[in-house]
Amino acid sequence: MLNLAFTQSVELKDQIHHIDTLRVEILSIPIPPKTERKLRWEAKATRIHSSLALAHNLLSRGQVVKILASVTRHVPTEHHDVLAYKRALDYIEESWTANPKPITFATASTIAELALTHPKETIERSVNSVENAIRTTLEYLENQTDHPVIQAGIALCLLSTSAAIPGDSGLVARLISATFLAKHGFDIRGLLTVEKNWFSGESSYDIALQSHATQGNLNHWLQFFAQTLADNLEERIRDLTNAKLHQDFPAAFWELNDRQKTILAALSEPSTTMTNKKAQKLFGISQITASRDLSKLTTLGLLFPHGKGRSVSYTKA
């Protein structure tokens, strides 16, 4: 039996009101498209590094950034965790931002298959072993009218503890929590990086998660979750108003050539797709050149890939 008990204290209500205010403030800040693209890319790199670090992956942020920026088709085994987590974040961004559909066990299964790098059969077996607990958690959350921050917080806590997937190390739990935030527009245009706050205060994060078991309720955890979310939004506002970027790469990394700009323009219609063969025909270029252009646009988060192998198609992000 899952313990879903919590009380909306005055402190928790105040924190959520503060989050609502910060969210509106961030969404009201005018950001040039090119700057926003850079900020979102930097945010995704930070989220991936921080969440993997919480799962005891020893890669530095600089290493994560270089892996994300690489367009090679031959990916070393030690880089798979980074790219798998990115695929899961891309899936959430594309499929769940402002999506009115319920988040279900099937959603959790999809995220687990994208984010975890174990053999597929192992992942399926692990997810199915806690199917009832995951279903109970998600069905409860979807049938409540709680604030999205509370929903996301409960999802993260339970899927990290009593409904945790064996071998997950919290990755899927954090991604499903992110799905609830994206669904209700609390990913803040892809700029939220709350995983960084959890990693920088890892011991507090672990203690707060375990308080669900030690105290028999979700009160301490939800206050911690809301506070770290508010702290991160305040940091993001400072970043936006000061126009600070990590500048991991030279300006040329962000520049697009004429072909890449034309590909984006051709995909302005939402139902339009691009493939390697279409790009070859459009520009009279080789398969390798088309692949490099499409990979660059995907790396920058401007295109979403669909399918595998030669059947991959791309849509505009």
UniProtKB/TrEMBL annotation:
Transmembrane segments: none annotated. Signal peptide: none annotated. It comes from Candidatus Gottesmanbacteria bacterium RIFCSPLOWO2_01_FULL_46_9. It comes from the Bacteria. This is HTH deoR-type domain-containing protein.
